[in-house]
Amino acid sequence: MHGPVVPGWLLVALCAVTGSYCLLRLRSGSARARSAAGGEAVMGFGMAAMAAPAAFAPPGPWLSTAYAMVFGGGALRALWLARGAAHHLHHVVGSLAMVYMALAMAAPGSGHAGHEGHSAGGVPLLTGVLLLYFAGYVLSAGARLLPSAGGGARPRGEPASGAPPESWGARPELALACRLSMGIAMLAMLVTV
Fold first, then answer.
1. Which of 169, 173, 171, 168 is nearest to 142 (CA)?
2. Contact indicator for 67, 96 with CB cutoff of 8 Å
3. What is the C-alpha to C-alpha distance for residues 110 and 31, in angstroms, rounded to an integer?
């Protein structure tokens, strides 16, 4: 959330670029893909705003409340959409993690030391569970981006056997790369809680 300035701005840039690509994805694909892209765009831009260094956007109770409301609404929307697609459950977890971090920003005391439920090492239990979840998600998404061992991968940018070329917004490997980058950004933000 609010750590050193240079890594904070790099995290802002990563999340903003990811959110921008998700906006491109809104123009192509099925209604289900567009719905996922919309939620991911909101998540990307929200993460970028929340990662802004404290010198640029000093956190205040009103800002934390706004973040909690936006991401709480995102969690409710994702929970509603999860009825038809299990992928939205990840969006629920991500949105609730952002609500948790927004509430941690508003907690009294510096360094978020006012959290209840610390384990022996000083890490709140919920933070540890979220770190484990997102670490597993990042490893899983990263493994899915690796080329298959069968050598069936086609060169980048070339359509599969006579298929029309894919637009930038419809490339599944780029959508997965965006999800991977948001997962990495979520890990970086959770480490600062």
1. 173
2. no
3. 44
Burial code (b: 16+ CB inside 10 Å, e: under 16) for 79-106 equals: eebeeeeeebebbbbbbbbbbbbbbbbb
- Total domain count, the chain: 1
Q: Tell me how far apart the alpha carbons of residues 176 and 158 are, in angstroms, rounded to a whole number.
A: 18
Query: CB neighbours (10 Å) of residue 161?
Result: 6
SS3 173: helix
pLDDT tens column, 17-67: 999 999 988 887 777 778 788 888 999 999 998 888 766 766 777 888 899
Give the pLDDT confidence of 145-164 residue by residue, as tens digits. 888 765 544 444 444 555 55
Residue found by looking up tokens 């006012």 in the block: 114
Task: Examine residue 23 and state whether it is found in any structural domain, yes or no.
Answer: yes
CB atoms within 10 A of CB 115: 19
Helix spans in 5-114 (H): 5-25, 31-51, 61-81, 87-106
**Domain assignment of residue 82, yes or no:** yes
Which DSSP state fits 158? P
pTM reported for the whole predicted model? 0.79
What is the C-alpha separation between 41 and 14, in angstroms, rounded? 12
Structural domain of residue 81, as residue ranges?
5-147+169-191
Q: Which of 109, 2, 111 is nearest to 47 (CA)?
A: 2
